[in-house]
Write a structure and sequence with these properties.
54 residues; 3-stranded antiparallel beta sheet; elongated
Length: 54
């Protein structure tokens, strides 16, 4: 997952697990205190063809 965020001073920053990883994990758990995520790429997994509900 890659994030593009705006920091408190208005700087745009890119972060991921490998690029600015400390910022990446801070943004994920920061509840909006580190900046605003403006773009995120999320890898999805294929859903199963059959779903059983109880």
């Amino acid at each position: 997952m890659f994030n593009l965020m705006v920091a408190g001073k208005g700087d745009f920053m890119t972060c991921s697990k490998t690029i600015n990883s400390e910022l990446f994990y801070g943004v994920l758990g920061g509840l909006g205190q580190f900046g605003i995520i403006t773009r995120a790429r999320i890898v999805l997994q294929k859903a199963p063809t059959r779903v059983r509900s109880l």
